[in-house]
Amino acid sequence: MNQYWITIHHPDDYDPFLLEDEAMHREIDVLNEEMIAAGVRVFVGGLQPAGTARSLRGQPGGGVVITDGPYLETKEHVGGFWVVEAAGLDEALEWGRKAAIACRAPVEVRPFY
């Protein structure tokens, strides 16, 4: 089995308290239960907004600089993710399709090495 990262992308101004409702949470719960029953879910996690991130950059001489905010300045960020084990890309894409529907957001599916 191969492992895949299924990521959910949110715009920078995404506010889960305004944009997520009980129906959406139920659909995500159902998807998680389906993944568990199928034996594909390895790990799942939701992330706080990108503004809560801290970025660390190595410096010459071994120092590290820590700055507030995400590493990349973009209009979207990763809002959550699953790690799944699937027989191949087609199966992983099917789980990604279900994630896009449940989360009502763009999804990226990427294999691990």
UniProtKB/TrEMBL annotation:
Signal peptide: none annotated. Residues 44-100 form the YCII-related domain. The lineage of its organism: Bacteria, Pseudomonadati, Verrucomicrobiota, Verrucomicrobiia, Verrucomicrobiales. Coiled coil: none annotated. InterPro entries: Dimeric_a/b-barrel, YCII. It comes from the Bacteria. It comes from Luteolibacter ambystomatis. This is YCII-related domain-containing protein. Belongs to the YciI family.
